[in-house]
Protein backbone atom coordinates (compact mmCIF):
# COMPACT_ATOMS: atom_id res chain seq x y z
CA UNK A 1 0.00 0.00 0.00
CA UNK A 2 1.20 3.54 -0.71
CA UNK A 3 0.88 6.76 1.28
CA UNK A 4 -2.40 7.58 -0.43
CA UNK A 5 -3.87 4.25 0.69
CA UNK A 6 -2.77 4.88 4.27
CA UNK A 7 -4.30 8.36 4.22
CA UNK A 8 -7.55 6.90 2.95
CA UNK A 9 -7.67 4.22 5.66
CA UNK A 10 -7.01 6.74 8.45
CA UNK A 11 -9.22 9.46 6.91
CA UNK A 12 -6.41 12.03 6.90
CA UNK A 13 -4.49 13.94 4.23
CA UNK A 14 -1.29 12.66 2.66
CA UNK A 15 0.57 15.38 4.56
CA UNK A 16 -0.38 13.67 7.82
CA UNK A 17 1.17 10.41 6.63
CA UNK A 18 4.36 12.28 5.70
CA UNK A 19 4.41 13.80 9.19
CA UNK A 20 3.97 10.37 10.81
CA UNK A 21 6.88 8.95 8.83
CA UNK A 22 9.08 11.88 9.78
CA UNK A 23 8.15 12.18 13.46
CA UNK A 24 7.70 8.56 14.52
CA UNK A 25 10.76 6.35 14.43
CA UNK A 26 8.60 3.24 14.80
CA UNK A 27 6.56 3.95 11.66
CA UNK A 28 6.83 0.93 9.31
CA UNK A 29 9.65 0.98 6.80
CA UNK A 30 8.90 0.69 3.06
CA UNK A 31 8.92 -2.81 1.65
CA UNK A 32 8.95 -1.81 -2.02
CA UNK A 33 8.19 0.92 -4.53
CA UNK A 34 10.56 3.83 -5.07
CA UNK A 35 11.99 6.60 -2.93
CA UNK A 36 9.33 9.01 -4.21
CA UNK A 37 6.49 6.48 -4.06
CA UNK A 38 7.24 3.87 -1.38
CA UNK A 39 5.04 0.87 -0.63
CA UNK A 40 4.25 -0.40 2.87
CA UNK A 41 2.93 -3.60 4.41
CA UNK A 42 -0.81 -3.46 5.13
CA UNK A 43 -0.48 -5.55 8.29
CA UNK A 44 2.43 -3.45 9.62
CA UNK A 45 0.64 -0.17 8.94
CA UNK A 46 -2.65 -1.26 10.52
CA UNK A 47 -0.74 -2.56 13.57
CA UNK A 48 1.05 0.80 13.88
CA UNK A 49 -2.19 2.78 13.55
CA UNK A 50 -3.85 0.60 16.18
CA UNK A 51 -0.86 0.84 18.51
CA UNK A 52 -0.79 4.64 18.25
CA UNK A 53 -4.50 5.07 18.91
CA UNK A 54 -5.32 6.31 15.43
CA UNK A 55 -8.72 5.27 14.13
CA UNK A 56 -8.87 3.64 10.72
CA UNK A 57 -11.16 1.56 8.57
CA UNK A 58 -10.16 -0.94 5.91
CA UNK A 59 -13.11 -1.64 3.65
CA UNK A 60 -13.72 -4.90 1.84
CA UNK A 61 -12.83 -3.14 -1.41
CA UNK A 62 -9.50 -2.04 0.03
CA UNK A 63 -8.81 -5.60 1.18
CA UNK A 64 -9.40 -6.85 -2.36
CA UNK A 65 -7.17 -4.13 -3.82
CA UNK A 66 -4.35 -4.72 -1.35
CA UNK A 67 -4.56 -8.46 -2.01
CA UNK A 68 -4.16 -7.73 -5.72
CA UNK A 69 -1.16 -5.46 -5.07
CA UNK A 70 0.59 -8.27 -3.20
CA UNK A 71 -0.32 -10.95 -5.75
CA UNK A 72 1.59 -9.48 -8.74
CA UNK A 73 4.10 -6.73 -9.42
CA UNK A 74 3.00 -3.37 -10.79
CA UNK A 75 3.91 -4.28 -14.37
CA UNK A 76 1.34 -7.11 -14.36
CA UNK A 77 -1.26 -5.40 -12.20
CA UNK A 78 -3.38 -4.32 -15.16
CA UNK A 79 -3.59 -7.89 -16.43
CA UNK A 80 -4.81 -9.04 -13.02
CA UNK A 81 -7.41 -6.25 -12.86
CA UNK A 82 -8.64 -7.44 -16.26
CA UNK A 83 -8.92 -11.07 -15.15
CA UNK A 84 -10.76 -10.05 -11.99
CA UNK A 85 -13.03 -7.99 -14.22
CA UNK A 86 -13.77 -11.11 -16.29
CA UNK A 87 -14.57 -12.97 -13.07
CA UNK A 88 -16.96 -10.21 -12.01
CA UNK A 89 -18.66 -10.32 -15.42
CA UNK A 90 -19.08 -14.08 -14.94
CA UNK A 91 -20.66 -13.47 -11.52
CA UNK A 92 -23.13 -11.06 -13.09
CA UNK A 93 -23.98 -13.18 -16.12
CA UNK A 94 -23.97 -16.62 -14.58
CA UNK A 95 -24.80 -16.48 -10.86
CA UNK A 96 -26.00 -20.08 -11.02
CA UNK A 97 -22.61 -21.12 -12.39
CA UNK A 98 -20.92 -19.43 -9.44
CA UNK A 99 -23.22 -21.21 -7.00
CA UNK A 100 -22.49 -24.51 -8.71
CA UNK A 101 -18.78 -24.26 -9.56
CA UNK A 102 -17.66 -21.93 -6.77
CA UNK A 103 -19.00 -23.91 -3.85
CA UNK A 104 -15.55 -25.08 -2.76
CA UNK A 105 -14.16 -21.55 -2.86
CA UNK A 106 -17.06 -20.21 -0.84
CA UNK A 107 -16.48 -22.94 1.72
CA UNK A 108 -12.83 -21.96 2.07
CA UNK A 109 -11.26 -24.72 -0.02
CA UNK A 110 -8.29 -22.88 -1.48
CA UNK A 111 -6.52 -25.56 -3.51
CA UNK A 112 -5.81 -25.01 -7.22
CA UNK A 113 -8.47 -27.48 -8.35
CA UNK A 114 -11.15 -25.12 -7.03
CA UNK A 115 -9.91 -22.45 -9.44
CA UNK A 116 -9.60 -24.93 -12.31
CA UNK A 117 -13.25 -25.88 -11.86
CA UNK A 118 -14.19 -22.24 -12.47
CA UNK A 119 -11.97 -21.60 -15.51
CA UNK A 120 -14.28 -23.16 -18.09
CA UNK A 121 -17.50 -21.46 -16.92
CA UNK A 122 -15.74 -18.07 -16.66
CA UNK A 123 -14.35 -18.40 -20.19
CA UNK A 124 -17.73 -19.44 -21.58
CA UNK A 125 -19.55 -16.53 -19.93
CA UNK A 126 -17.03 -13.92 -21.10
CA UNK A 127 -16.20 -15.04 -24.63
CA UNK A 128 -16.98 -11.55 -25.98
CA UNK A 129 -14.10 -9.96 -24.07
CA UNK A 130 -11.00 -9.09 -26.14
CA UNK A 131 -8.10 -11.45 -25.60
CA UNK A 132 -10.22 -14.13 -23.86
CA UNK A 133 -8.67 -13.41 -20.45
CA UNK A 134 -10.33 -16.11 -18.31
CA UNK A 135 -8.58 -17.10 -15.09
CA UNK A 136 -4.88 -17.88 -14.72
CA UNK A 137 -4.03 -21.44 -13.64
CA UNK A 138 -2.34 -20.05 -10.53
CA UNK A 139 -5.03 -17.47 -9.70
CA UNK A 140 -5.18 -16.67 -6.00
CA UNK A 141 -8.28 -18.47 -4.62
CA UNK A 142 -8.46 -16.16 -1.60
CA UNK A 143 -8.57 -13.16 -3.94
CA UNK A 144 -11.46 -14.66 -5.90
CA UNK A 145 -13.38 -15.32 -2.70
CA UNK A 146 -12.85 -11.75 -1.48
CA UNK A 147 -13.90 -10.43 -4.89
CA UNK A 148 -17.08 -12.48 -4.82
CA UNK A 149 -17.88 -11.06 -1.38
CA UNK A 150 -17.29 -7.55 -2.68
CA UNK A 151 -19.59 -8.18 -5.65
CA UNK A 152 -22.28 -9.59 -3.38
CA UNK A 153 -22.02 -6.53 -1.13
CA UNK A 154 -21.86 -3.77 -3.78
CA UNK A 155 -22.70 -5.39 -7.11
CA UNK A 156 -20.21 -6.50 -9.81
CA UNK A 157 -20.24 -3.13 -11.61
CA UNK A 158 -19.53 -1.05 -8.51
CA UNK A 159 -16.86 -3.54 -7.45
CA UNK A 160 -15.04 -3.27 -10.77
CA UNK A 161 -15.35 0.53 -10.93
CA UNK A 162 -13.72 0.66 -7.49
CA UNK A 163 -10.82 -1.53 -8.63
CA UNK A 164 -10.44 0.43 -11.89
CA UNK A 165 -10.27 3.70 -9.96
CA UNK A 166 -7.54 2.29 -7.73
CA UNK A 167 -5.63 1.01 -10.77
CA UNK A 168 -5.81 4.36 -12.56
CA UNK A 169 -4.67 6.13 -9.40
CA UNK A 170 -1.72 3.76 -8.97
CA UNK A 171 -0.67 4.26 -12.62
CA UNK A 172 -1.63 7.92 -13.05
CA UNK A 173 1.68 8.72 -14.77
CA UNK A 174 1.22 6.01 -17.41
CA UNK A 175 -2.53 6.35 -17.98
CA UNK A 176 -4.16 9.41 -19.51
CA UNK A 177 -7.82 9.59 -18.51
CA UNK A 178 -10.18 12.22 -19.89
CA UNK A 179 -11.62 14.54 -17.25
CA UNK A 180 -15.14 13.52 -16.24
CA UNK A 181 -16.63 16.94 -17.00
CA UNK A 182 -15.01 17.03 -20.44
CA UNK A 183 -16.18 13.46 -21.18
CA UNK A 184 -19.74 14.40 -20.21
CA UNK A 185 -19.59 17.51 -22.41
CA UNK A 186 -18.37 15.55 -25.43
CA UNK A 187 -21.18 13.02 -25.00
CA UNK A 188 -23.77 15.82 -24.91
CA UNK A 189 -22.42 17.56 -28.01
CA UNK A 190 -22.49 14.49 -30.26
CA UNK A 191 -25.51 12.84 -28.59
CA UNK A 192 -26.77 10.19 -31.05
CA UNK A 193 -29.47 8.89 -28.68
CA UNK A 194 -29.41 5.10 -28.72
CA UNK A 195 -27.11 5.01 -31.77
CA UNK A 196 -23.57 3.70 -31.98
CA UNK A 197 -20.67 5.71 -30.60
CA UNK A 198 -17.10 4.90 -31.54
CA UNK A 199 -13.92 5.79 -29.67
CA UNK A 200 -10.87 4.67 -31.69
CA UNK A 201 -8.42 5.46 -28.83
CA UNK A 202 -10.63 4.44 -25.93
CA UNK A 203 -8.04 4.01 -23.15
CA UNK A 204 -9.96 2.63 -20.18
CA UNK A 205 -13.32 3.55 -21.71
CA UNK A 206 -14.20 6.86 -20.06
CA UNK A 207 -15.73 8.41 -23.21
CA UNK A 208 -17.91 5.37 -23.94
CA UNK A 209 -19.54 4.85 -20.55
CA UNK A 210 -22.78 6.61 -21.49
CA UNK A 211 -22.97 5.55 -25.14
CA UNK A 212 -26.03 3.71 -26.39
CA UNK A 213 -24.09 1.12 -28.38
CA UNK A 214 -20.36 1.55 -27.72
CA UNK A 215 -17.62 0.59 -30.17
CA UNK A 216 -13.99 0.94 -29.22
CA UNK A 217 -10.44 0.24 -30.24
CA UNK A 218 -7.38 0.59 -28.02
CA UNK A 219 -3.74 -0.08 -28.78
CA UNK A 220 -3.03 -1.39 -25.27
CA UNK A 221 -4.53 -4.87 -24.85
CA UNK A 222 -4.94 -4.50 -21.09
CA UNK A 223 -6.78 -1.21 -21.40
CA UNK A 224 -8.98 -2.64 -24.16
CA UNK A 225 -9.96 -5.44 -21.77
CA UNK A 226 -10.72 -3.01 -18.94
CA UNK A 227 -12.90 -0.93 -21.29
CA UNK A 228 -14.83 -3.98 -22.45
CA UNK A 229 -15.48 -5.16 -18.90
CA UNK A 230 -16.69 -1.70 -17.80
CA UNK A 231 -19.08 -1.51 -20.73
CA UNK A 232 -20.38 -5.07 -20.63
CA UNK A 233 -21.01 -4.86 -16.88
CA UNK A 234 -23.40 -2.01 -17.76
CA UNK A 235 -25.38 -4.38 -19.94
CA UNK A 236 -24.56 -2.69 -23.25
CA UNK A 237 -23.94 -4.40 -26.60
CA UNK A 238 -20.36 -3.20 -26.56
CA UNK A 239 -17.58 -4.33 -28.85
CA UNK A 240 -13.96 -3.43 -28.15
CA UNK A 241 -10.96 -4.57 -30.18
CA UNK A 242 -7.27 -4.30 -29.39
CA UNK A 243 -4.84 -2.82 -31.88
CA UNK A 244 -3.38 0.34 -33.39
CA UNK A 245 -6.32 2.21 -34.94
CA UNK A 246 -4.20 4.12 -37.46
CA UNK A 247 -2.04 1.22 -38.62
CA UNK A 248 -4.42 -1.71 -38.02
CA UNK A 249 -7.99 -0.46 -38.11
CA UNK A 250 -9.92 -3.20 -36.34
CA UNK A 251 -13.25 -1.61 -37.27
CA UNK A 252 -12.50 -0.86 -40.92
CA UNK A 253 -15.63 -0.19 -42.95
CA UNK A 254 -17.88 0.37 -39.93
CA UNK A 255 -19.72 3.68 -39.63
CA UNK A 256 -20.88 4.93 -36.25
CA UNK A 257 -23.60 7.46 -35.53
CA UNK A 258 -21.06 9.55 -33.60
CA UNK A 259 -17.37 9.46 -32.73
CA UNK A 260 -15.61 10.69 -29.60
CA UNK A 261 -11.85 10.58 -29.22
CA UNK A 262 -9.06 11.69 -26.89
CA UNK A 263 -6.08 10.63 -29.03
CA UNK A 264 -2.44 10.51 -27.96
CA UNK A 265 -0.79 13.90 -28.51
CA UNK A 266 2.56 14.53 -30.21
CA UNK A 267 3.11 10.88 -31.17
CA UNK A 268 5.73 11.05 -33.92
CA UNK A 269 5.74 7.31 -34.71
CA UNK A 270 2.13 7.21 -35.86
CA UNK A 271 2.75 5.53 -39.21
CA UNK A 272 3.52 8.42 -41.55
CA UNK A 273 5.61 6.35 -44.00
CA UNK A 274 3.41 3.28 -44.32
CA UNK A 275 0.13 5.25 -44.43
CA UNK A 276 1.13 7.86 -47.02
CA UNK A 277 -1.46 6.65 -49.55
CA UNK A 278 -4.24 5.80 -47.12
CA UNK A 279 -7.74 6.67 -48.43
CA UNK A 280 -8.68 8.16 -45.05
CA UNK A 281 -6.64 11.28 -45.79
CA UNK A 282 -9.51 12.93 -47.69
CA UNK A 283 -8.45 16.39 -46.51
CA UNK A 284 -4.72 15.97 -47.05
CA UNK A 285 -1.80 13.81 -45.96
CA UNK A 286 -1.10 14.66 -42.31
CA UNK A 287 2.44 16.01 -41.85
CA UNK A 288 4.77 13.79 -39.86
CA UNK A 289 4.58 16.15 -36.87
CA UNK A 290 0.76 16.49 -36.95
CA UNK A 291 -0.53 13.06 -35.83
CA UNK A 292 -3.65 14.65 -34.35
CA UNK A 293 -4.79 15.61 -37.87
CA UNK A 294 -4.51 11.93 -38.79
CA UNK A 295 -6.82 11.09 -35.89
CA UNK A 296 -9.31 13.77 -36.96
CA UNK A 297 -9.56 12.26 -40.44
CA UNK A 298 -9.69 8.72 -39.06
CA UNK A 299 -12.65 9.76 -36.88
CA UNK A 300 -14.43 11.38 -39.83
CA UNK A 301 -13.93 8.23 -41.91
CA UNK A 302 -15.80 6.21 -39.25
CA UNK A 303 -18.86 8.44 -38.79
CA UNK A 304 -21.89 8.22 -41.05
CA UNK A 305 -22.57 11.19 -43.39
CA UNK A 306 -24.14 13.91 -41.28
CA UNK A 307 -22.81 12.37 -38.06
CA UNK A 308 -20.78 14.27 -35.47
CA UNK A 309 -17.30 13.70 -34.09
CA UNK A 310 -15.81 15.34 -30.98
CA UNK A 311 -12.02 15.14 -30.84
CA UNK A 312 -9.72 16.55 -28.18
CA UNK A 313 -6.73 18.34 -29.69
CA UNK A 314 -3.61 20.09 -28.39
CA UNK A 315 -4.13 23.84 -28.52
CA UNK A 316 -1.21 24.25 -30.95
CA UNK A 317 -3.00 22.11 -33.56
CA UNK A 318 -5.29 25.06 -34.28
CA UNK A 319 -2.45 27.26 -35.51
CA UNK A 320 0.67 25.25 -36.42
CA UNK A 321 1.76 26.10 -39.97
CA UNK A 322 2.33 22.50 -41.21
CA UNK A 323 -1.35 21.71 -40.62
CA UNK A 324 -2.86 24.82 -42.24
CA UNK A 325 -3.70 23.06 -45.53
CA UNK A 326 -5.74 20.37 -43.80
CA UNK A 327 -7.43 22.90 -41.53
CA UNK A 328 -8.36 24.93 -44.60
CA UNK A 329 -9.79 21.89 -46.37
CA UNK A 330 -11.81 20.91 -43.31
CA UNK A 331 -13.29 24.41 -43.24
CA UNK A 332 -14.03 24.55 -46.97
CA UNK A 333 -15.84 21.20 -46.86
CA UNK A 334 -17.88 22.21 -43.82
CA UNK A 335 -16.39 19.31 -41.84
CA UNK A 336 -15.03 21.41 -38.96
CA UNK A 337 -17.88 23.11 -37.15
CA UNK A 338 -16.49 24.29 -33.78
CA UNK A 339 -13.20 24.88 -31.96
CA UNK A 340 -13.60 25.10 -28.18
CA UNK A 341 -10.86 26.04 -25.72
CA UNK A 342 -11.32 23.94 -22.56
CA UNK A 343 -8.38 25.23 -20.49
CA UNK A 344 -5.74 27.98 -20.82
CA UNK A 345 -3.02 25.52 -21.83
CA UNK A 346 -5.29 23.16 -23.74
CA UNK A 347 -6.67 20.84 -24.77
CA UNK A 348 -9.12 22.22 -27.30
CA UNK A 349 -12.20 20.38 -28.45
CA UNK A 350 -12.91 20.16 -32.17
CA UNK A 351 -16.46 19.32 -33.18
CA UNK A 352 -16.76 17.97 -36.71
CA UNK A 353 -19.59 16.82 -38.98
CA UNK A 354 -19.04 14.49 -41.87
CA UNK A 355 -20.33 16.20 -45.02
CA UNK A 356 -23.47 14.63 -46.52
CA UNK A 357 -23.87 16.71 -49.66
CA UNK A 358 -25.62 19.66 -48.04
CA UNK A 359 -24.39 23.22 -48.39
CA UNK A 360 -21.63 23.85 -45.80
CA UNK A 361 -22.08 26.64 -43.24
CA UNK A 362 -20.36 29.95 -43.85
CA UNK A 363 -19.26 30.42 -40.22
CA UNK A 364 -17.23 28.51 -37.63
CA UNK A 365 -18.20 28.44 -33.95
CA UNK A 366 -15.42 29.65 -31.62
CA UNK A 367 -15.82 29.18 -27.86
CA UNK A 368 -13.39 30.12 -25.10
CA UNK A 369 -14.67 27.99 -22.21
CA UNK A 370 -11.43 27.92 -20.22
CA UNK A 371 -13.19 29.41 -17.19
CA UNK A 372 -16.69 27.98 -17.60
CA UNK A 373 -17.56 24.79 -19.49
CA UNK A 374 -21.27 25.41 -18.95
CA UNK A 375 -21.34 27.96 -21.79
CA UNK A 376 -20.40 25.38 -24.43
CA UNK A 377 -23.59 23.35 -24.80
CA UNK A 378 -25.97 26.37 -25.10
CA UNK A 379 -23.60 27.96 -27.62
CA UNK A 380 -23.45 24.76 -29.67
CA UNK A 381 -27.24 24.29 -29.63
CA UNK A 382 -27.75 27.89 -30.74
CA UNK A 383 -25.16 27.49 -33.51
CA UNK A 384 -26.74 24.29 -34.86
CA UNK A 385 -30.10 26.06 -34.90
CA UNK A 386 -28.79 29.13 -36.73
CA UNK A 387 -25.09 29.17 -37.73
CA UNK A 388 -25.37 32.81 -38.83
CA UNK A 389 -26.51 34.17 -35.43
CA UNK A 390 -24.20 35.09 -32.56
CA UNK A 391 -24.55 32.36 -29.88
CA UNK A 392 -24.57 33.21 -26.16
CA UNK A 393 -21.11 33.44 -24.58
CA UNK A 394 -19.33 32.63 -27.84
CA UNK A 395 -18.92 33.89 -31.37
CA UNK A 396 -19.01 32.71 -34.95
CA UNK A 397 -16.31 33.69 -37.42
CA UNK A 398 -16.73 33.83 -41.18
CA UNK A 399 -14.88 30.89 -42.69
CA UNK A 400 -13.73 33.03 -45.61
CA UNK A 401 -11.95 35.30 -43.11
CA UNK A 402 -10.09 32.29 -41.67
CA UNK A 403 -8.80 31.03 -45.02
CA UNK A 404 -5.74 33.25 -45.04
CA UNK A 405 -2.06 32.38 -45.04
CA UNK A 406 -2.21 31.01 -41.48
CA UNK A 407 -5.70 29.45 -41.08
CA UNK A 408 -5.37 30.20 -37.36
CA UNK A 409 -8.33 28.73 -35.49
CA UNK A 410 -7.06 29.35 -31.95
CA UNK A 411 -10.01 30.56 -29.81
CA UNK A 412 -7.78 33.06 -28.03
CA UNK A 413 -7.30 34.90 -31.31
CA UNK A 414 -11.02 35.11 -31.93
CA UNK A 415 -12.46 36.22 -28.63
CA UNK A 416 -16.15 37.03 -28.78
CA UNK A 417 -17.08 40.73 -28.85
CA UNK A 418 -18.36 42.13 -25.61
CA UNK A 419 -22.15 41.97 -25.38
CA UNK A 420 -23.78 45.42 -25.46
CA UNK A 421 -25.66 45.44 -22.15
CA UNK A 422 -23.10 43.24 -20.38
CA UNK A 423 -20.21 45.33 -21.64
CA UNK A 424 -21.77 48.60 -20.51
CA UNK A 425 -22.36 47.10 -17.09
CA UNK A 426 -18.86 45.60 -16.82
CA UNK A 427 -17.08 48.72 -18.05
CA UNK A 428 -19.13 51.04 -15.82
CA UNK A 429 -18.51 48.81 -12.82
CA UNK A 430 -14.76 48.64 -13.53
CA UNK A 431 -14.59 52.42 -13.95
CA UNK A 432 -16.51 53.05 -10.73
CA UNK A 433 -14.37 50.62 -8.71
CA UNK A 434 -11.15 52.11 -10.10
CA UNK A 435 -12.22 55.66 -9.23
CA UNK A 436 -13.38 54.56 -5.81
CA UNK A 437 -10.09 52.78 -5.10
CA UNK A 438 -7.88 55.54 -6.49
CA UNK A 439 -9.70 58.53 -4.97
CA UNK A 440 -8.02 58.26 -1.50
CA UNK A 441 -4.53 57.84 -2.95
CA UNK A 442 -3.56 61.55 -3.04
CA UNK A 443 -4.31 61.77 0.69
CA UNK A 444 -2.96 58.33 1.51
CA UNK A 445 0.68 58.88 2.54
CA UNK A 446 1.05 59.29 6.31
CA UNK A 447 1.97 62.71 7.68
CA UNK A 448 5.78 62.61 7.77
CA UNK A 449 7.95 65.51 8.88
CA UNK A 450 11.00 66.23 6.71
CA UNK A 451 14.18 66.94 8.73
CA UNK A 452 16.98 69.16 7.55
CA UNK A 453 19.55 66.84 9.12
CA UNK A 454 19.52 63.09 9.62
CA UNK A 455 18.39 62.10 13.11
CA UNK A 456 20.66 59.61 14.86
CA UNK A 457 18.72 57.23 17.12
CA UNK A 458 20.17 54.86 19.70
CA UNK A 459 19.79 51.28 18.47
CA UNK A 460 19.93 47.70 19.65
CA UNK A 461 19.79 44.41 17.77
CA UNK A 462 17.06 41.83 17.38
CA UNK A 463 19.37 39.40 19.17
CA UNK A 464 19.53 41.69 22.20
CA UNK A 465 15.75 42.09 22.18
CA UNK A 466 15.45 38.28 22.21
CA UNK A 467 17.84 38.04 25.17
CA UNK A 468 15.86 40.70 27.02
CA UNK A 469 12.62 38.76 26.51
CA UNK A 470 10.98 41.41 24.31
CA UNK A 471 10.97 39.17 21.22
CA UNK A 472 10.57 35.41 20.69
CA UNK A 473 11.55 34.01 17.29
CA UNK A 474 9.64 30.94 16.05
CA UNK A 475 9.64 28.92 12.83
CA UNK A 476 7.44 26.19 11.35
CA UNK A 477 8.47 22.55 11.83
CA UNK A 478 11.05 21.22 9.41
CA UNK A 479 9.58 19.45 6.37
CA UNK A 480 6.12 20.68 7.19
CA UNK A 481 3.62 20.35 4.36
CA UNK A 482 0.91 22.94 3.81
CA UNK A 483 -0.98 21.61 0.79
CA UNK A 484 -4.00 20.01 2.48
CA UNK A 485 -5.63 19.49 5.87
CA UNK A 486 -8.22 21.00 8.23
CA UNK A 487 -5.86 23.44 9.96
CA UNK A 488 -5.46 26.71 7.98
CA UNK A 489 -1.87 27.63 7.20
CA UNK A 490 -0.42 31.09 6.51
CA UNK A 491 1.92 30.68 3.53
CA UNK A 492 4.71 32.85 2.14
CA UNK A 493 2.47 33.85 -0.79
CA UNK A 494 -0.24 34.94 1.66
CA UNK A 495 2.21 37.17 3.53
CA UNK A 496 3.54 38.67 0.32
CA UNK A 497 0.06 39.42 -1.07
CA UNK A 498 -1.59 40.33 2.23
CA UNK A 499 -4.31 37.73 1.69
CA UNK A 500 -6.07 35.26 4.00
CA UNK A 501 -4.40 31.91 4.81
CA UNK A 502 -4.59 29.62 1.78
CA UNK A 503 -2.73 26.52 2.99
CA UNK A 504 -3.86 23.60 5.06
CA UNK A 505 -2.28 20.95 7.25
CA UNK A 506 -3.15 18.41 9.93
CA UNK A 507 -3.17 19.09 13.63
CA UNK A 508 0.22 18.35 15.12
CA UNK A 509 1.85 19.25 18.46
CA UNK A 510 4.79 20.77 16.62
CA UNK A 511 2.74 23.39 14.76
CA UNK A 512 3.37 27.06 15.54
CA UNK A 513 -0.02 28.76 15.90
CA UNK A 514 -0.05 32.44 15.01
CA UNK A 515 -1.42 34.97 17.52
CA UNK A 516 -2.76 38.49 16.96
CA UNK A 517 0.12 40.97 16.94
CA UNK A 518 2.73 38.48 15.71
CA UNK A 519 5.13 39.78 13.06
CA UNK A 520 5.67 37.32 10.21
CA UNK A 521 8.38 37.60 7.56
CA UNK A 522 9.25 35.69 4.38
CA UNK A 523 12.69 34.82 3.06
CA UNK A 524 12.21 37.41 0.30
CA UNK A 525 11.57 40.29 2.69
CA UNK A 526 7.78 40.55 2.88
CA UNK A 527 6.62 41.52 6.39
CA UNK A 528 3.13 41.40 7.90
CA UNK A 529 1.62 41.98 11.32
CA UNK A 530 -1.05 39.33 11.87
CA UNK A 531 -4.31 40.72 13.19
CA UNK A 532 -6.41 37.55 13.42
CA UNK A 533 -5.24 34.45 15.35
CA UNK A 534 -5.98 30.78 14.71
CA UNK A 535 -3.75 29.82 11.78
CA UNK A 536 -0.57 27.75 11.64
CA UNK A 537 2.75 29.29 10.60
CA UNK A 538 3.72 27.95 7.17
CA UNK A 539 7.08 26.77 5.80
CA UNK A 540 9.82 29.31 5.02
CA UNK A 541 8.29 31.89 7.37
CA UNK A 542 9.74 33.41 10.53
CA UNK A 543 7.53 34.65 13.36
CA UNK A 544 8.51 37.40 15.84
CA UNK A 545 6.29 37.42 18.93
CA UNK A 546 6.70 40.64 20.91
CA UNK A 547 5.91 41.76 24.43
CA UNK A 548 3.32 44.41 23.46
CA UNK A 549 3.77 46.30 26.72
CA UNK A 550 7.39 47.06 25.79
CA UNK A 551 7.59 46.71 21.99
CA UNK A 552 5.11 47.78 19.30
CA UNK A 553 4.72 45.07 16.61
CA UNK A 554 4.21 47.54 13.75
CA UNK A 555 7.32 49.44 14.85
CA UNK A 556 9.32 46.19 14.74
CA UNK A 557 7.78 45.18 11.39
CA UNK A 558 8.83 48.45 9.76
CA UNK A 559 12.44 48.11 10.80
CA UNK A 560 12.55 44.40 9.93
CA UNK A 561 11.45 45.29 6.41
CA UNK A 562 14.10 47.99 6.19
CA UNK A 563 16.74 45.62 7.56
CA UNK A 564 16.00 43.07 4.82
CA UNK A 565 16.31 45.65 2.05
CA UNK A 566 19.65 46.96 3.31
CA UNK A 567 21.18 43.59 4.29
CA UNK A 568 23.46 43.49 7.30
CA UNK A 569 26.13 41.64 5.30
CA UNK A 570 26.02 42.83 1.64
CA UNK A 571 28.30 39.97 0.54
CA UNK A 572 25.85 37.39 1.87
CA UNK A 573 22.64 36.25 0.20
CA UNK A 574 21.09 35.62 3.61
CA UNK A 575 20.06 38.14 6.21
CA UNK A 576 21.49 37.72 9.73
CA UNK A 577 18.27 38.90 11.38
CA UNK A 578 19.59 38.77 14.94
CA UNK A 579 22.14 41.42 14.03
CA UNK A 580 19.57 43.71 12.40
CA UNK A 581 19.34 46.96 14.33
CA UNK A 582 16.20 48.48 15.84
CA UNK A 583 16.00 51.94 17.47
CA UNK A 584 15.63 52.10 21.22
CA UNK A 585 12.60 54.33 21.82
CA UNK A 586 9.86 54.62 24.44
CA UNK A 587 6.76 52.58 23.67
CA UNK A 588 4.70 55.71 22.98
CA UNK A 589 7.22 56.86 20.39
CA UNK A 590 7.39 53.34 18.92
CA UNK A 591 3.63 53.44 18.42
CA UNK A 592 3.89 56.70 16.49
CA UNK A 593 6.41 55.02 14.17
CA UNK A 594 4.19 51.94 14.08
CA UNK A 595 1.20 53.97 12.88
CA UNK A 596 3.30 55.45 10.06
CA UNK A 597 4.62 52.02 9.03
CA UNK A 598 1.09 50.62 9.17
CA UNK A 599 -0.27 53.42 6.95
CA UNK A 600 2.53 52.89 4.42
CA UNK A 601 1.76 49.15 4.30
CA UNK A 602 -1.94 49.91 3.82
CA UNK A 603 -1.05 52.31 0.99
CA UNK A 604 1.00 49.57 -0.62
CA UNK A 605 -2.00 47.20 -0.48
CA UNK A 606 -4.31 49.85 -1.94
CA UNK A 607 -1.87 50.55 -4.75
CA UNK A 608 -1.71 46.83 -5.55
CA UNK A 609 -5.51 46.62 -5.62
CA UNK A 610 -5.78 49.80 -7.69
CA UNK A 611 -3.24 48.48 -10.18
CA UNK A 612 -5.28 45.29 -10.63
CA UNK A 613 -8.47 47.31 -11.12
CA UNK A 614 -6.63 49.56 -13.56
CA UNK A 615 -5.52 46.55 -15.63
CA UNK A 616 -9.15 45.40 -15.86
CA UNK A 617 -10.30 48.87 -16.88
CA UNK A 618 -7.58 49.12 -19.53
CA UNK A 619 -8.44 45.70 -20.98
CA UNK A 620 -12.13 46.58 -21.18
CA UNK A 621 -11.24 49.94 -22.72
CA UNK A 622 -9.23 48.34 -25.51
CA UNK A 623 -11.94 45.70 -26.10
CA UNK A 624 -14.67 48.34 -26.19
CA UNK A 625 -12.82 50.57 -28.65
CA UNK A 626 -12.01 47.64 -30.94
CA UNK A 627 -15.46 46.04 -30.78
CA UNK A 628 -17.37 49.31 -31.24
CA UNK A 629 -18.93 49.64 -27.78
CA UNK A 630 -16.75 52.68 -26.94
CA UNK A 631 -15.53 55.67 -28.92
CA UNK A 632 -13.28 58.62 -28.06
CA UNK A 633 -14.94 61.85 -27.04
CA UNK A 634 -13.69 65.36 -26.38
CA UNK A 635 -14.54 65.26 -22.69
CA UNK A 636 -13.03 61.85 -21.95
CA UNK A 637 -14.98 58.77 -20.94
From TrEMBL:
Recorded superkingdom: Bacteria
GO molecular function annotation: DNA binding; N-methyltransferase activity
Residues forming coiled coils: none
Gene3D superfamilies: Vaccinia Virus protein VP39
InterPro entries attached to this UniProt entry: DNA_methylase_A-5, DNA_methylase_N6_adenine_CS, SAM-dependent_MTases_sf, Type-I_RE_MTase_Subunit
Name of the protein this chain belongs to: SAM-dependent methyltransferase
Keywords, alphabetical: Methyltransferase, Restriction system, Transferase
GO biological process, one term: methylation
SUPFAM superfamilies listed in its UniProt record: DNA methylase specificity domain, S-adenosyl-L-methionine-dependent methyltransferases
Domain DNA methylase adenine-specific intervals: 159-344
Lineage: Bacteria, Bacillati, Actinomycetota, Actinomycetes, Streptosporangiales
